[in-house]
Amino acid sequence: MTLDAGQVVIRLRPDIAPAHVARIKELTRQGFYDGVVFHRVIPGFMAQTGDPTGTGRGGSGQKLTAELSNTPFRRGTVGMARGGSLDSADSQFFICYDRAAHLDGNYTVWGEVVDGMSVVDRIARGEPPRRPDRIVTMKVQADAATNK
């Protein structure tokens, strides 16, 4: 994932959330996330993106069944945002800034930041941020390696 401030590398976790990883890869390959802003960024908690409208109310239109695991939400964990229903996740996701134990077992973990957390730390704060940062482009590394 490329942001204006630099690169963020997310290791996917198909071992704990195969359907979510497949959907994230599908949307990424379609260019869905390119240009999308971080619309909700709470210091000490998380940075949320994935809504093409930038309002926090949009998505891709395809709901996902929750894939809950024992994987804890800690600094760098990437999880799916959702509404009140466990099975309401769509395209929005968030990256945790710190440990968020209250999310454990209640939200799907699908990845973890393995490089570039300092870039995530620089994302503009706010709900919504006054001048939101955006995903310049998001790619599946396996595709980039083969020039797809």
Automatic annotation (TrEMBL):
Entry keyword annotation includes Isomerase: yes
Coiled coil ranges: none
Domain PPIase cyclophilin-type as annotated: residue spans: 1-146
Root EC class: isomerase
InterPro entries documented for this protein: Cyclophilin-like_dom_sf, Cyclophilin-type_PPIase, Cyclophilin-type_PPIase_CS, Cyclophilin-type_PPIase_dom, Cyclophilin_A-like
UniProt keyword terms in alphabetical order: Isomerase, Rotamase
Catalytic activity of the protein: [protein]-peptidylproline (omega=180) = [protein]-peptidylproline (omega=0)
Single GO molecular function: isomerase activity
UniProt EC number: 5.2.1.8
A Pfam family matched in the record: Pro_isomerase
Keyword Isomerase: yes
Free-text function comment from the UniProt entry: PPIases accelerate the folding of proteins. It catalyzes the cis-trans isomerization of proline imidic peptide bonds in oligopeptides.
Similarity comment text for this entry: Belongs to the cyclophilin-type PPIase family.
The protein's name in its UniProt record: Peptidyl-prolyl cis-trans isomerase
Source organism: Tistrella bauzanensis
The gene coding this protein: ppiB
